[in-house]
Structure formats: structure tokens, C-alpha cells
Amino acid sequence: VKESAKPTFPVDFLLVNITHGFPLRPSPLFRSSDPFPIENRLGIENQSSEVLISRLSQLGASSVAPSPLDNSFSSRQAREKLARWFSDWHLLAYWSQVGFLGPEDIKQIARIATSPNLEEPSILDPLLEREGWQTLMAIVSESGPSKPSGPGPARPIDNDGFEEIPPELLDEMGMDVDQTSGGGSRPRSRLDTSAGGPPGGSATKICPHCTFENSASAVDCDVCGLPLV
Question: What percent of the chain shows pLDDT beyond 70?
């Protein structure tokens, strides 16, 4: 549809209405939801073998089994997740830099990355059987995060939710120590009259609400007025 552009433009111009070219149901070729770093962006996004191995380790790629060996629901989910991660143009372009993958290995990865049916259970089977891929998976298994050692004996927890302080550490700090029923220890104020009184013989009562030091005969706190019991 052509319309006159007057008075915005001179008479020599016309406004032309055209339809847009966006599909109502887009079907992109690459569908990865976990994009691989983009090439040629050093300092912003860095492509490296360490990033590749880390991603494969997070996906559990080394434990993905071919469909004839394990066709359980969890195994199918793991294969589909790995196949969908393959469907990334920047990752596909990077595979050629992985030295121990040959041209046939990369062709298999390209077939997976551009497949219209990533949910097919057997889509990864040809790749999983290739020697280059198995070598890569051996490296991923060796480079994966080490399992944390078993937890050591936990220290006792006091009523405040903190770990009890070892008595020898409190002795080094020159603090008095109260032993708890659980075998732990906690520091005691030198003005705490419940443990023999402070040095010098003058007894005081510490307010449990505002921590003000009141005289030993006081019933209520001289500052906040709350009972000292």
C-alpha cells in the first residue's frame, strides 16, 4: 500500500507498508539454554578447555550411558540435557580446537547440534562410542571436583548457637572458664558474682536486659528499671 508522504516529506517520497518477517512459531536451529562463551571476546567471555571441561562435569557427561545400556527415565533426561547443550553455534565452532577430537567426532557433534529432535533417546549413541569422546570423558572424570572429606568431630554448641571455645584457648587469652554439661567451655565475666565474685571483693549484679552493673543489694536495674532476677 502506497500513501503520499505529504506534508512530512516532499512529494517525491511515498510511505510503503510492508509486513514483518518474524515467524509466528519460531524454530531456531540452535536451542541451547546454557550458552557457551562467545569467541573473540577476551576479557569478557573466554573460551578455554577449562570452561569446556567444567561444563561437561556439571552436566555429568562422563556418566551418560548409551541408550541400549540404560534407557531409564533419568538416563534419558541426562542424554537430552547433554544433547540440548550441544545445540550451540559457539560451542560447535569451538570443538575444532579440542585436539583429541578428530573430524569424525566433530561431525557427530554437528549432527547432534543441528538435529530437529534432541529428545531422541539414541541421538548420542554414535558419539558415545567414539574413542575421541571417551578420551575426553576420561579427562573430565579426572578433572572433576574432588569429593569433600568426611566431616570431623563437631564442637559442642552452646545455648547461643555458637561453637564452644576450647578451654586451652581461653586460658591463653587470660579469661575465666565455665565448663558446660556437654564437656565444652565458655568465657565467664570477671564481674560474674555467680562464680565466686569479682577480684577485690565488691559484689555486683549485672542486669540481664541492659548489662548494667548494679550493686549487689539492688533488686531492680538502676538504668532500665527491669528486675535483676
Answer: 66
Rounded to whole angstroms, the Cα distance separating 95 from 101 reads: 8
Mean pLDDT along residues 128-134? 93
Cα–Cα nearest to 56, from 145, 148, 177: 145
Helix, strand, coil proportions of the chain in percent (round to 5)?
A: 30, 10, 55
Dihedral in degrees, nearest 10, Cα atoms 178, 179, 184, 190: 10
Whether 194 contacts 184, CB under 8 Å: no
CB-CB contact of 95 with 106 (8 Å) = yes
Among 27-41, 86-100, 166-180, 214-228, the range scoring the smallest mean pLDDT is 166-180
In the chain, beta strands by DSSP E: 2-4, 14-16, 176-179, 185-188, 204-206, 213-215
Whether residue 198 is predicted with pLDDT greater than 50 in this model: the reply is no
